[in-house]
């Protein structure tokens, strides 16, 4: 069940990223973030009272703290993608995101079998290969590499903090996360006097991004509440593979050999991690 939930979270997150990527090609990124997060908040506010067994302010605020890390990671990732080659920034961020929760989980006392540990190693390599597009020869500044690592660590911190919530309060921590992100994004919009009105042909993609991203967080929380942080974080970090596959199937984008190898290794990793 944990493997299924973590992979479902990856599928939802990868699909959300695909819609978000399509949306940002049609309108500005501030519009995409503001509207998709506001939509997500509306959705989760309806769902939370129907799903949660109880409400705990502590878990709610853990969601707020987690969102702070998530937004920090997002800001650094977008900054990195704007300053340097995606082929370098994306895979480093993805691997750092998965690695920190693994280390945290193991240090915290999670006991893994040798097979599952092997699955984690294979999975981290797979995540890198799926995200990496070879052929980039542009010199990369050390500051850009540092930002990519910090972005990944911030995303990993999101996993760790949200993992500290209890199963009975889910998905209220996601509500807390969305409340913070909406307030932060719209505060930025007001202070920087940014326009958030999207282009007419982008709304369907923005709605898709908000819907899939929100439910990805709900399912991720369920997986973390039921399983080891070290395992769930790796499985959920396969989301770039979903985005790549959707781009291949729907946009006819070409997949290079390293990405195909990464997908094959990803399947191997999933099989190893699923072993109890």
Structural class by SSE content: mainly alpha
Number of helices: 11
> What Rg is obtained from the alpha carbons, in whole angstroms?
18 Å
Unreliable stretches: none
* General shape: globular
| SS strand fraction | under 5%
In total, the number of domains comes to 1
The proportion of residues forming helix, as a percent range, comes to over 70%
Tell me what the structure shows.
With 276 residues, the protein is mostly helical. It has one domain (2-273). It has helices spanning 2-24, 29-51, 57-83, 86-107, 114-131, 142-163, 172-192, 203-226, 229-236, 239-250, 257-273. Helix 2 (29-51) packs antiparallel against helix 7 and helix 5 (114-131) packs parallel to helix 9.
Keyphrases for this structure?
0% strand, single chain, 276 residues, mainly alpha, 11 helices
Brief summary of the model shown:
The chain is mainly α. The chain has helices at 2-24, 29-51, 57-83, 86-107, 114-131, 142-163, 172-192, 203-226, 229-236, 239-250, 257-273.
What is the topology?
Blueprint: H1 2-24, H2 29-51, H3 57-83, H4 86-107, H5 114-131, H6 142-163, H7 172-192, H8 203-226, H9 229-236, H10 239-250, H11 257-273
């Amino acid at each position: 069940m944990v493997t299924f939930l973590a992979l479902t979270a990856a599928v939802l997150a990868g699909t959300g990223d695909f819609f978000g990527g399509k949306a940002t090609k049609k309108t500005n990124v501030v519009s995409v973030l503001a509207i998709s997060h506001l939509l997500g908040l509306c959705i989760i506010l309806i769902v939370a009272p129907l799903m949660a067994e109880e409400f705990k302010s502590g878990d709610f605020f853990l969601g707020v703290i987690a969102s702070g890390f998530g937004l920090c990671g997002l800001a650094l990732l977008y900054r990195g993608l704007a300053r340097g080659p995606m082929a370098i920034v994306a895979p480093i961020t993805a691997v750092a995101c998965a690695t920190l929760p693994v280390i945290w989980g193991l240090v915290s006392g999670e006991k893994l079998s040798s097979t599952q540990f092997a699955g984690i190693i294979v999975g981290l390599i797979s995540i890198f290969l799926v995200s990496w597009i070879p052929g980039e020869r542009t010199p990369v500044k050390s500051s850009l590499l540092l930002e990519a690592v910090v972005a990944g660590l911030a995303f990993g911190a999101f996993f760790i903090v949200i993992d500290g919530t209890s199963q009975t309060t889910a998905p209220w921590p996601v509500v807390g996360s969305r409340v913070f992100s909406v307030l932060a994004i719209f505060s930025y919009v007001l202070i920087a006097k940014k326009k958030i009105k999207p282009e007419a042909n982008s709304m369907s993609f923005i709605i898709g991004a908000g819907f899939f991203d929100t439910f990805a967080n709900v399912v991720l929380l369920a997986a973390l509440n039921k399983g080891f942080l070290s395992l769930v974080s790796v499985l959920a970090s396969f989301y770039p593979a979903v985005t790549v596959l959707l781009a291949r199937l729907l946009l006819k984008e070409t997949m290079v050999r390293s990405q195909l190898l990464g997908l094959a290794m990803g399947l191997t990793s999933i099989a190893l991690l699923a072993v109890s």
